[in-house]
Specification:
Oligomer: heterotrimer
Chains: A mainly alpha (235), B mainly alpha (224), C alpha/beta (239)
Largest sheet of chain C: 6 strands, mixed
Strand content of chain C: 25-35%
Distance between the termini of chain C: 38 Å
Strand order of the largest sheet of chain C: 6-7-8-3-9-10
Number of helices of chain C: 8
CATH class of chain C: Alpha Beta
Number of strands of chain C: 10
CATH superfamily of chain C: P-loop containing nucleotide triphosphate hydrolases
Number of strands of chain B: 0
Number of domains of chain C: 1
CATH topology of chain C: Rossmann fold
Order of helices and strands of chain B: HHHHHHHHH
Distance between the termini of chain B: 27 Å
CATH architecture of chain C: 3-Layer(aba) Sandwich
Shape of chain B: globular
Number of domains of chain B: 1
Helix content of chain C: 25-40%
Strand content of chain B: under 5%
């Protein structure tokens, strides 16, 4: 029975601490924004989860490429783990975005580029999982997943650009002169600290979850191998 | 090199020959496309003004749905009597299969489009016979079939078959849909080309990128 | 006839995820030999044949066919391989002749050869009928025609007699014997021990993922063959 590696235990503790600290910073340290009020604080978590979602998406595509080149099962496990986890993170980002949007723009959903692209990525994830469930042979399943993750990853920037050209009311928070008129805002120093700390906290959290999920995948695979071996009359 | 193109040509010839016998694929695509246009006509009840902005969308939605049918059937034929193995056994590069099938799918889609467009023009009153617009139709169809052929090759080897293809394909082809619709609108409304040429650029970029990537990964999709 | 080794397989392993189908398999076929590969269901006969046909990649091990190392040199090798599998590999909506013409284009084969093959398999008078309308025996003969169209020096057959009635089976045997006489190297998997032994010069037994036993068919009668089969399974640790 493989026990949890020390480093993972350390990572567990670190993520927990950082998330709690981030929450503390958000609620108690960062100032309340003038125009939007308290709800603006959702922004810290919203961007962080969306950022992590993108991280996961990239990780899945990268793992896919590595799987195609090397054929090692581990890359497939990394890929599906990344997809599963960032599926949840993106969902959180979308929900948080809705919570933020409601009081500001008086609507739960907006068809703006970033939100729409996030929704599309969720759909790609859903398709990815459906594809996996439709293929029985493990090697083939891994190969198809890798190819689809890669295709998905390449299509998303193009999709984003297309939608962006189509329309936008999403606040451009970082670096736009018209930010305020679009509902954006400038961040002062304490906000910046909170913001980047949240980003870091969620990234660590993601790594932690990913590692756990990969372990789960590998254990699962080992169980499958044992099961098949005992069923076969000893090849 | 010549034998490569000869092989690709052989695959296309074979698909057209077989299709000519039964005409199942083409007629299914065609009937479906016309039905979709009809349904949209009643579902949307467009007055003359909104018609201008929505008709491009109706058109491309029709093409996308009808295209799915063609894509599914094209690869299903190969799976049915194990013919995919027959293609894999030929002493040619595996990409011949991809190109042969992709071009064949594209041609089928173009045939259907060629029939649907005049009908559409008749019902909605747009001049579809502008070379620029036809170019957009071709570019969009290329992108769609390039990705669709690759995905349907995967889907045909999976259990859940037909329904899986649209689910996999649609999220990936959104850039094509958006760009093709906007570019088509530009032509319908006689907007100066400079204003909407960016959409054509997006179509070209999409086509190039995905044909290249599809060629690189196709082997992996056919491996056993 | 040289005694050159045409097919050389060493320590072949094929796994599908956690499932190991072939393991530590050694297999050798010399030029002109007709080898029948027998074994219980699930032993891996089809898997082995697919690997030899370049349709499947080995998980590990060495496979050399006609001095081409697989899987890299697959494309070049396929010009010398003729494969008959479980499925007919024929297009139902094309005529018999059109099917051969299609494959002919892929292998760069001319019209005369197509007519020649049609005559060899006895389908000249049905060549313009859609393959959909062919009986199973006719489809099987056309499949063989497709396989030998490009005059391959190596033939791989996967249970070609399955689903055929007595008469169709005998016609098939005639075609196979003629084809084998032309000096080709043949590997055929089969369930039918006696029939296979009648065609082949050597019988190998595949059990539990490796070759468990081998014998030349020579003067062996049906009883001896069955005894060989049972013994091979037992000693190979099988069924």
């Amino acid at each position: 029975m493989r026990s949890k590696p020390r480093l993972l235990i350390a990572l567990d503790i670190l993520s927990a601490v950082m998330i709690l600290t981030a929450a503390g910073l958000v609620f108690f340290y960062a100032p309340v924004e003038k125009l939007m009020g308290a709800v603006q604080k959702v922004f810290y978590f919203h961007v962080a989860t969306a950022w992590v979602g993108m991280l996961g998406f990239s990780a899945a595509a990268l793992a896919g490429v590595f799987y195609l080149r090397e054929g090692k099962e581990r890359w497939d496990i990394v890929g599906v783990s990344a997809v599963e986890i960032s599926l949840v993170f993106f969902l959180a980002a979308i929900v948080l975005g809705s919570i933020w949007a409601r009081p500001i723009w008086n609507t739960w959903w907006t068809w703006d580029p970033r939100l729409t692209t996030a929704a599309i990525v969720e759909l790609i994830y859903g398709a990815y999982m459906l594809l996996r469930s439709g293929v029985d042979d493990p090697d083939r399943r891994a190969r198809f997943s890798a190819v689809y993750a890669l295709f998905g990853f390449i299509s998303v920037p193009l999709t984003f650009i297309s939608i962006r050209l189509l329309r936008t009311i999403h606040p451009v928070v970082i670096g736009s002169a018209e930010a305020a008129s679009q509902g954006g805002f400038n961040m002062d120093a304490s906000m910046q600290i909170t913001f980047f700390f949240s980003l870091a906290a969620f990234s660590i959290f993601f790594a932690d979850l990913l590692w756990h999920r990969i372990r789960l995948g590998e254990l699962n695979s080992a169980v499958e191998t044992l099961r098949v071996e005992t069923n076969q009359e000893g090849i | 090199m010549r034998s490569y193109f000869k092989a690709v040509g052989a695959v296309i010839w074979k698909d057209f020959r077989a299709e000519w016998r039964s005409r199942e694929n083409l007629s299914a695509m065609l009937v479906f496309a016309l039905l979709v246009i009809l349904i949209f006509n009643f579902a949307l009840e467009l007055d003359l003004d909104t018609r201008a902005s929505l008709s491009a969308g109706v058109l491309w939605t029709t093409f996308i749905f009808a295209g799915t049918i063609g894509l599914n059937r094209s690869l299903a034929v190969e799976k049915d009597r194990g013919c995919l193995d027959g293609l894999l056994l030929a002493p040619v590069d595996r990409s011949v299969i991809y190109f042969g099938k992709a071009v064949g799918n594209l041609l089928f889609m173009v045939v259907v489009e060629a029939i649907v467009l005049p009908v559409f023009s008749f019902l909605y009153g747009f001049n579809v016979f502008q070379p620029g617009f036809l170019g957009v139709v071709i570019l969009g169809s290329i992108g769609y079939t390039a990705v669709g052929t690759l995905l349907s090759t995967m889907v045909v080897q999976a259990r859940t078959r037909d329904i899986l293809l649209p689910i996999l394909l649609f999220p990936l082809t959104l850039p094509v849909v958006i760009a093709a619709v906007k570019a088509s609108q530009g032509f319908f409304q006689n907007t100066p080309l400079a204003e909407f040429s960016v959409w054509i650029n997006i179509l070209v970029a999409y086509d190039l990128v995905f044909i290249a990537v599809a060629m690189m990964v196709f082997d992996y999709v056919l491996e056993d | 006839m040289e005694n050159k080794t045409v097919i050389q397989v060493n320590n072949l392993e094929k796994r599908y995820g956690p499932l190991t189908v072939l393991q530590g398999l050694d297999f050798e076929v010399k030029a002109g030999e007709f080898v029948a590969l027998l074994g219980p269901n699930g032993a891996g006969k089809t898997t082995l044949l697919r690997i030899l046909a370049t349709l499947s990649r080995p998980t590990s091990g060495q496979v050399r066919i006609a001095s081409c190392q697989l899987p890299q040199a697959g494309t070049a090798l396929r010009a010398h391989l003729g494969v008959v599998s479980h499925q007919p590999l024929l297009y139902g909506d094309l005529t018999g002749e059109e099917n051969l013409r299609f494959y002919g284009k892929l292998y760069s084969i001319g019209k005369e050869r197509i007519q020649e093959v049609l005559a060899l398999i006895g389908l000249v008078n049905r060549k313009d009928d859609l393959v959909r309308t062919y009986s199973r025996g006719m489809q099987q003969r056309l499949t063989i025609g497709r396989a030998i169209l490009h005059n391959p020096s190596i033939l791989l057959l996967d249970e070609p007699h399955s689903g055929l009635d007595q008469e169709a089976g005998e016609t098939l045997d005639l075609v196979l014997r003629e084809v084998a006489l032309e000096g080709r190297t043949v590997v055929m998997t089969s369930h039918d021990l006696v029939r296979a032994a009648g065609l082949a010069s050597r019988v190998d037994l595949l059990s539990r993922g490796r070759i468990a036993a081998s014998t030349s068919t020579g003067d062996m009668g049906p009883n001896e063959l069955v005894a060989f089969y049972r013994a091979g399974l037992r000693d190979g640790g099988g069924a």
